[in-house]
Predict the 3D structure of the following.
Amino acid sequence: MKALITGITGQDGAYLSEFLLSKNYEVHGIVRRSSSFNTGRIDHLISKHTSDGKLQLYYSDLLDSSSITNLINNIQPDEIYNLGAQSHVAVSFQNPILTTQLGTLGSITILETIKHLDKKVKFYQASSSEMFGGTSKELLDENSLFDPKSPYGASKVFAHDITKIYRESYNVFGVNGILFNHESPLRGETFVTRKISKAVGRIAAGIQSKLTLGNLDASRDWGYAKDYIEGMWLMMQYDYPEDWVLATGVTKTVRDFAEEAFKYVNLNWEDYVITSEKYFRPNEVDYLLGDSSKAREVLNWKPSVDFKGLVKIMVEHDINEAKKDFTLLKDNLISPTWEYPKL
Ligand code: NAP
Ligand code: G4F
């Protein structure tokens, strides 16, 4: 089996590559050119598979439709996972046009290309719980209404709808995975869970003094990314292309996450966390809680890590990272930063 992944250098792309390679897939991935290396999450896979050709990377960009189409035509993959995005909701308010272009052009380009291929290629679209908007405290499933609150959310609604339209109009095997927040040690460092786990590790090691956050009342259904990757793949192996929700069914506030993370190192979060307007958004998704009964019953999918387990995995990882930073600091190889990240 051959898979093509956009967004292979991101959190989900890295775990998905590892997962598919373990299932003996040939994995092809799109990497965008940047002035510094952006393959840190998959470097271990690159070194392992340079000689056997099981992992092949190409410079491309979701905005370069002709390059994406050429790649699909040349590779002739069996499955395409469209994970590439400007995936930070707060940044989508600062870069709304780019976020929208990436979120919409990528999906339609791939779907158009697949439509014209003789081969039946399966397509996975990375839809998001952000599409629901989260204004009321309802349990959200595949039939819940979308009411996005950000340019990011709106672009995801377009990609979701166009996937459904190609499925119904042209019989394309287009799958929408409506994934609720999923986290891990590979999570980008400006998303709130990782920002907290990273700070806890650094505060425990004595190389950070405080943590500045935004809205502590926001509530999210947080799961473990590796569980969600398996769910993506299961959706693509099902007999029919459909929409699927993946979620834990438990929601916690940002405050709960901070409290649990600091508790892990026997510290009181209130002694370290301050809030700043800087991290509040022009519009907020207040509450997300998912109902993944369909995936649990039909795909036999279920999350293996609960909230406490997730916090433990992330904090333990970041304690070890901070210990390395502490050693480098002690040897004067890096200079202290009292808060991290700066963005
Ligand atoms: P991520 O870590 O931010 O990764 C995003 C990926 O998209 C990276 O590989 C990034 O490349 C790539 N990308 C950005 N701009 C691009 C461009 N112009 N052309 C090609 N690739 C580009 O996101 P993630 O957490 O893995 O999420 C994967 C997908 O699932 C995203 O579409 C996200 O919106 C969606 N999603 C995520 C969650 C979640 O909780 N994680 C939930 C629902 C949906 P660089 O490495 O070079 O930046
Ligand atoms: O970690 P976040 O930035 O994730 P958000 O906005 O829920 O988006 C993530 O999940 C979506 C699925 O629902 C994905 F589609 C999307 O790509 C991304 O992966 O923020 C979570 C909550 C927000 O309510 C935010 O306002 O945490 C709040 N928050 C409070 N302080 C903060 C901070 N968020 C960030 N990033 N940084 C803060 O300092």
Observations:
- The domain at 192-219+251-286+306-330 is CATH 3.90.25.10 (UDP-galactose 4-epimerase; domain 1).
